[in-house]
């Protein structure tokens, strides 16, 4: 007796399902085991340190006008890059006057004293050994998101391989300082005066939020049109 059509269809459906499982993307399976699918692209963003340096001739009379202008441009780049430690490396033989004047000039422009370090180095009696002023800045390389597969043919309902790539790439490219991807910034100090005011109002049962001004109102204008 011939089996009903429905029973003859079951083996065929099972074979199709097995075929779909056999062709499952192993990378997609690995991505699905991560806490968040977007985490798969975290390692694709490469942050590279790059030294920004200028070299100043060790004049016995101190900084020249050209060197002062070069320092001004260097300081502007340091400010724009939100740079960290500035190192002034002066040769042990005759370079400390330019090194000291360089440090004093940077401090006069507002650079914190703890971020401007003056060190000496052995120039092996080289008469033309320069004073090297530099800091470390960072550049970021984002992943290429140009590869797109068929988003409706996954067989296992897993995320597509490019999911999260564009978001990760755009966020990394928009950072003013790529160093933030390596080390988070420290928190600014708390405002104890404001905290005292808020706690005092809270204890008295008063409103602790800031006063509302006219610009914060959502009322519809009554002006004649």
Distance between the termini: 86 Å
Q: What percent of residues adopt helix (DSSP H or I)?
A: 25-40%
Q: What is the fourth-level CATH superfamily?
A: OmpA-like domain
Biggest β-sheet: count, sense, barrel?
A: 4 strands, mixed
**CATH domain topology:** 60s Ribosomal Protein L30, Chain: A
Structural class: alpha+beta
The overall strand count is 4
Helix tally?
Answer: 6
Describe the structure concisely for a colleague.
The chain has 225 residues and is an alpha+beta fold. It has 6 helices and 4 strands; from the N terminus they run ααβαβαββαα. It has one domain (34-200): 60s Ribosomal Protein L30, Chain: A.
Show the helix and strand layout.
Layout: H1 5-22, H2 26-32, E1 46-56, H3 65-80, E2 86-91, H4 96-108, E3 116-121, E4 131-141, H5 165-174, H6 192-203
Parallel strand pairs: 2-3
Antiparallel strand pairs: 1-4, 2-4
Description:
The chain is of the alpha+beta class and 225 residues long. It has one domain: 60s Ribosomal Protein L30, Chain: A (2-Layer Sandwich), CATH 3.30.1330.60. Helix content is 34%, strand content 15%. The protein contains 6 helices and 4 strands. A 4-stranded mixed sheet has the order 1-4-2-3. Strand 2, helix 4 and strand 3 form a beta-alpha-beta unit. The longest helix is centred in the N-terminal third of the chain and has 18 residues, at 5-22. The protein is flat. Residues 5-10 and 12-20 have low confidence and may be disordered.
């Amino acid at each position: 007796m011939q089996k009903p059509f429905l029973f003859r269809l079951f083996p065929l459906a099972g074979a199709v399902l097995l075929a779909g499982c056999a062709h499952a993307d192993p990378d997609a399976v690995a991505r699905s085991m991560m806490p968040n699918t977007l985490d798969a692209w975290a390692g694709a963003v490469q942050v590279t340190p790059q030294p920004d340096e200028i070299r100043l001739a060790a004049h016995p009379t101190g900084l020249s006008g050209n060197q002062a202008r070069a320092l001004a441009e260097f300081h502007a780049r340091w400010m724009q890059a939100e740079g960290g430690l500035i190192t002034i490396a002066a040769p042990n033989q005759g370079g400390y006057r330019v090194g000291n004047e360089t440090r004093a000039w940077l401090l006069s422009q507002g650079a914190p004293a703890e971020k401007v370090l003056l060190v000496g180095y052995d120039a092996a009696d080289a008469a033309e050994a320069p004073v090297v002023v530099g800091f470390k800045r960072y550049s970021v390389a984002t992943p290429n998101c140009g590869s797109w597969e068929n988003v409706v043919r996954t067989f296992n309902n897993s995320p597509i391989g490019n999911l999260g790539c564009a978001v990760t790439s755009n966020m990394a490219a928009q950072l003013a300082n790529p160093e933030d991807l390596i080390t988070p910034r420290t928190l600014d100090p708390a405002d104890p005066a404001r905290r005292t005011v808020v706690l005092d109002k809270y204890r008295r049962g008063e409103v602790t939020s800031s006063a509302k001004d006219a610009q914060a109102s959502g009322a519809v204008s009554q002006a004649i049109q």
